[in-house]
Amino acid sequence: MLYQQYGSATPMRRRAGHLSKALTWRLPMPDKIDDEVEAIKAVLKALESLTPDARSSVAGYVLKRLGIAVSVEAAFLGAVTSQTPAGPAEAAALSTPIHLEDLKKQKNPKSASEMAALVAFYLSELAPSAQRKKTVTAADIKTYFKIGGYPLPEVQFTLPNAKQAGYFDAVGNGEYRLNAVGYNLVAHSLPRSKDGAASGRKPRKKKVNRK
Predict the structure, then answer these.
(1) Structural domains in the chain, sorted by start
(2) Looking at the whole model, is its pTM more than 0.70?
């Protein structure tokens, strides 16, 4: 038992007891969505004031006490940490960056210029913290086109062409920065529809000439 193992009750252990009771008393029956929601609220309320390590300890104990499998325990802890407010350092540690190849499959760029914009977007917004950067070079194009599984173009022309397409601004020394047009392309317009129009854009109405 928790109290026998660790001695007298501390605030954290008392909270563990409350959490165990909340889960035991409010364990939802099938099809009772309201009861399930209330149980989730009770769990989050009990854990939100604890440190991440304390949350893991308490939640792990309760799940084992209830006989929940380890694989489900991992999913539970992920759900708890993702819905609990965290500071910048904690949020960075908890977040799981998307892989560039998965982003490429999702956005489906149709040209090397669009892929270059996607690479720049990935590096500035979605890559692991240690890899993030605000500008890209021809070397980045060569590296990340390969990582993303996109056919390698003539890299020395890729960024200048993407700049001519309106997606980048040149900042000097062979470096280019994704501009608002390029950002919006990746964030909001890709993937394009089958007719080539950007997704999310309403088709233009044809003007009818009145006689």
Answers:
(1) 2-93 (no CATH), 100-189 (1.10.10.10)
(2) no
